[in-house]
């Protein structure tokens, strides 16, 4: 950047600041209040009213100088920086008072050269200087870390930090001799017609300037000055870390893992867009807003009314809790007031008559080898028979005894069918006992059909008793 360009940039910046100051003087109003603690200006925004009550979107323009060196230091393959111009455009959405997302579009050049111990430009090998033209697009988070609000308790200065990521597009070039550097002649990284890298040299019809695309991580700090509610002056410094080693046109074979970087110091104006009556979220002081809301007369009246309602509720609760006869039921629900002290009462406050608890029936004991009953024309065991079968199985296993299972049927059906049915019933019992651990050799089965009834087959009660299996222990 030459001296003439610097003068033009400074003149434009001063003119922009004067214009912003005039706009601020014409649009800013000050109100007075009997309470000196109230903030000046009027706003309808509430602490918990949401983002919709604020202006949150802004556009910024900036310009400044670039350098291959960083404020935090680090290694560099060049000894001296050449002042070069950088410029940018930003779009920011303020998500909260202290945080926003910002899209940055930047461009410019980064230049450097080598000097000897006496401070004279020189060439180290075939490197006298480099010049890289770049463009970048990044998305960053912007965090307001501190504010200065002065007397009016509305923020006037914000200090912020930024960090994000994006893509950088650049064209590196190098001056291979001191004469080339002094004359501004640079050899570019080049690519052929198919986009393949070729040798460094002057671009021609066959070999074009090569554009390198790499990841870039910007990390920066800055300060923002409020000119008006919608216009701010930004001053900042950003360090850009590239995921490559070509930006400075000097690849270090000794340190192939090294990554290039450059910095950008800038100043610019930011314009916040939105509804005319809405305040700018960037300058809101939530603590002051909450303080003002607590002193709002309408809120005080609402609090006073709420206290009255709470008192009424407390009195109603006390009335509900009143129990004159001490039986545990409040007077409003006591249907039998003045019950004697110590009486046991129900939910309505009346004396509770307690009936004696009937005795719990004791189940009949399980007797092993009892008859097993079956449903009509069925050989499926009833679940009610399992206790008797389990007791029988336990006794047989404990004593190693032998048992004969006799199957029977009622007189319905043919004799042949009833004989088969009685055998199936006996086998069902045997299967259960064997599955429970009784040796199969200790269980014998015999079918008797409808013979040997133990009840009258002419009645249903008798037929039910005859559908059975009995045991003979040996």
From TrEMBL:
<feature type="domain" description="OmpA-like">
    <location>
        <begin position="362"/>
        <end position="474"/>
    </location>
</feature>
<protein>
    <submittedName>
        <fullName>OmpA family protein</fullName>
    </submittedName>
</protein>
<keyword id="KW-1134">Transmembrane beta strand</keyword>
<feature type="signal peptide">
    <location>
        <begin position="1"/>
        <end position="25"/>
    </location>
</feature>
<dbReference type="GO" id="GO:0006811">
    <property type="term" value="P:monoatomic ion transport"/>
</dbReference>
<keyword id="KW-0406">Ion transport</keyword>
<keyword id="KW-0998">Cell outer membrane</keyword>
<dbReference type="InterPro" id="IPR028974">
    <property type="entry name" value="TSP_type-3_rpt"/>
</dbReference>
<dbReference type="GO" id="GO:0005509">
    <property type="term" value="F:calcium ion binding"/>
</dbReference>
<dbReference type="InterPro" id="IPR011250">
    <property type="entry name" value="OMP/PagP_B-barrel"/>
</dbReference>
<dbReference type="InterPro" id="IPR036737">
    <property type="entry name" value="OmpA-like_sf"/>
</dbReference>
<feature type="region of interest" description="Disordered">
    <location>
        <begin position="454"/>
        <end position="474"/>
    </location>
</feature>
<dbReference type="GO" id="GO:0046930">
    <property type="term" value="C:pore complex"/>
</dbReference>
<dbReference type="GO" id="GO:0009279">
    <property type="term" value="C:cell outer membrane"/>
</dbReference>
<dbReference type="InterPro" id="IPR006664">
    <property type="entry name" value="OMP_bac"/>
</dbReference>
<dbReference type="GO" id="GO:0015288">
    <property type="term" value="F:porin activity"/>
</dbReference>
<keyword id="KW-0732">Signal</keyword>
<dbReference type="Pfam" id="PF00691">
    <property type="entry name" value="OmpA"/>
</dbReference>
<dbReference type="InterPro" id="IPR050330">
    <property type="entry name" value="Bact_OuterMem_StrucFunc"/>
</dbReference>
<keyword id="KW-0813">Transport</keyword>
<keyword id="KW-0472">Membrane</keyword>
<dbReference type="InterPro" id="IPR006665">
    <property type="entry name" value="OmpA-like"/>
</dbReference>
<keyword id="KW-0812">Transmembrane</keyword>
<keyword id="KW-0626">Porin</keyword>
């Amino acid at each position: 950047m030459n001296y003439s360009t610097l003068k033009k940039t400074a003149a434009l910046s001063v003119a922009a600041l004067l214009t912003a100051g005039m706009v601020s003087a014409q649009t800013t109003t000050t109100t007075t209040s009997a309470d000196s603690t109230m903030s000046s200006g009027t706003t309808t925004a509430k602490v918990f009213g949401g983002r919709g009550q604020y202006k949150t979107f802004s556009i910024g323009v900036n310009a400044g100088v670039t350098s291959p060196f960083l404020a935090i230091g680090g290694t560099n393959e060049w000894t001296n920086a050449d002042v070069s111009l950088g410029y940018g455009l930003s779009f920011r959405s303020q998500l909260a008072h202290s945080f926003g997302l910002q899209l940055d579009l930047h461009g410019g050049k980064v230049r450097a050269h080598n000097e000897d111990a006496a401070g004279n430009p020189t060439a180290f090998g075939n490197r006298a200087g480099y010049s890289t033209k770049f463009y970048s697009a990044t998305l960053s988070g912007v965090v307001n870390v501190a504010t200065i609000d002065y007397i009016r308790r509305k923020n006037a200065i914000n200090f912020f930090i930024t960090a994000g990521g994006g893509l950088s597009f650049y064209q590196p070039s190098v001056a291979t001799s001191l004469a080339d550097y002094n004359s501004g002649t640079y050899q570019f990284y080049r690519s052929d017609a198919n986009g393949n890298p070729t040798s460094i040299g002057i671009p021609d019809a066959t070999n074009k300037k090569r554009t390198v695309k790499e990841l870039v991580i910007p990390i920066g700090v800055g300060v923002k000055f409020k000119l008006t509610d919608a216009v701010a002056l930004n001053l900042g410094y950003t360090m850009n870390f590239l995921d490559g080693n070509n930006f400075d046109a000097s690849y270090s074979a000794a340190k192939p893992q090294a990554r290039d970087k450059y910095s950008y110091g800038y100043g610019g104006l930011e314009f916040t867009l939105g509804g005319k009556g809405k305040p700018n979220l960037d300058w809101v002081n939530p603590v002051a807003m909450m303080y003002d809301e607590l002193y709002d007369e309408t809120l005080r009246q609402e609090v006073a009314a709420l206290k009255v309602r709470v008192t009424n509720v407390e009195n109603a609760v006390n009335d509900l809790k009143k129990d004159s006869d001490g039986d545990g039921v409040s007077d409003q629900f006591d249907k039998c007031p003045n019950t004697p002290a110590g009486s046991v009462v129900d939910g309505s406050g009346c004396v509770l008559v307690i009936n004696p608890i009937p005795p719990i029936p004791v189940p009949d004991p399980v007797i092993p080898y009892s008859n097993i009953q079956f449903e009509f024309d069925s050989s499926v065991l009833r679940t009610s028979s399992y206790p008797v079968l389990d007791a029988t199985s336990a006794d047989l296993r404990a004593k190693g005894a032998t048992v004969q299972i006799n199957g029977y049927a009622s007189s319905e059906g043919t004799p042949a069918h009833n004989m088969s049915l009685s055998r199936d019933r006996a086998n069902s019992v045997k299967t259960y006992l064997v599955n429970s651990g009784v040796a199969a050799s200790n269980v014998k089965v015999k079918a008797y059909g409808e013979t040997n009834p133990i009840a009258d087959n002419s009645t249903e009660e008798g037929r039910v008793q005859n559908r059975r299996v009995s045991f003979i222990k040996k």
